[in-house]
Specification:
- There is one protein chain.
- It contains 7 helices and 11 strands.
- α4 (126-151) packs across α5.
- By secondary structure, it is an alpha+beta fold.
- Strands 1, 2, 3, 4, 5, 6, 7, 8 and 11 form a 9-stranded mixed β-sheet that branches. Strands 9-10 form a two-stranded antiparallel sheet.
Amino acid sequence: MMKQLDLEGLKRIELEILDVVVKFCDEHEINYCLGGGTLIGAIRHKGFIPWDDDIDLMMLRPDYDKFTELFNKYNTRYRFNTPENDPEYKRYCGRVLDTKTILYDDKWKSNIYVDIFCWDNAPNDDKALKRMFCCKKFYWYFYRLQFRAITSVPKGNILRKVSVLFLCMFMKILTFLVIPENYFAKKMNSNARKYMHEDTKRVGNFLGIQQIVVSRKAFDSFIDAEFEGKIYNIPVGYDEILRTLYGDYMQLPPEEDRVAHHEFKAYINE
């Protein structure tokens, strides 16, 4: 029997997923840390940002690949999906899903999840880094075009709406005939791996909208931080990471921006 969850119920399931991931990582010597809004929440609120509704983790590529290889071998209820291990998975970053749940999130049907963002080696040479980001932006554009073809209505003036609708329709037809729906997500991941075997001084997140690079030292070690009454890992260079991502992250945003990122309907099979 499916039971609908409110926001607090959704957060409770996300915290359960988080604890499953953390326990697994501890048992298999995999480094993880809180990331994104979850990292801000731990530093600024010792828990969820009051208007936030999801959980983000970060891993460096070696730990991310080890987690990808092992997690699904030891779990049945919880599954880790990436565009590289599931041809039906369309998102660009990995997600740990609770298969006893259903989530309708931003017009997608999924399960309740925790995102894991992979950080990859960034080249020491600025020109090489720029080329890497250009490739990411190219694949990201077409990924978003495929995504919009499935989920959203274009905004703007009539010319832009017609142009975007035409491109979305073209991509939808092309995807159906030739290109797998996760093709560009896989290409973004392939681009992100480009320097994985080189010793670099920087790491970056090459799988999102923002162009983000920080020193490798930011992930040299991990320290404890409280989140919703429990202790989790955060990177020793959390300040550098958060300032690169958000600027003055300790400053609360204007009240009109204090809203949840997603619209959802969540259910659990009890």
